[in-house]
Design a protein that fits this description.
alpha+beta, six-stranded antiparallel β-sheet, 36% helix, globular
């Protein structure tokens, strides 16, 4: 199992319940949920990847289970990993998903994604 399918299912249920149009794509060794053509959240192993924006990062790091998202040893600005222990309840998961969805309209699509739309 490359990623926690149960966590992916919980994310999908949340997005559907909120009537959020999304696309799921396998990437970064896990599953990413794209909203408006931009990576919003995802699952990598048993943890959540969330794109919350650089302005929210400092406050997010104070929350249990949150740490910088770094695949190569270099943290990605505006992205965080949230450990499974901090996502046990639907309320805990929903708070992270809401943060990511709030940032999504401000997020810039990757150059590669933007080029495909042309």
């Amino acid at each position: 199992m490359a990623y926690d399918e149960s966590l992916a299912s919980r994310i999908e249920r949340y997005l559907n319940a909120k009537h959020v149009a999304f696309e799921s794509k396998r990437m970064m060794g896990g599953l990413a949920f794209m909203v408006n053509g931009k990576m919003c959240v995802g699952v990598e192993k048993n943890r959540l990847m969330a794109r919350i924006g650089p302005d929210e990062q400092t406050a997010a790091f104070a929350r249990a289970g949150c740490r910088p998202m770094d695949f190569t040893g270099r943290p990605m600005r505006g992205f965080v990993f949230v450990a499974a222990d901090a996502l046990r309840t639907e309320r805990q998961l929903a708070s992270w998903l809401a943060l990511a969805l709030a940032f999504n309209p401000k997020a810039v699509a990757s150059k590669r994604s933007a080029a495909r739309k042309k």
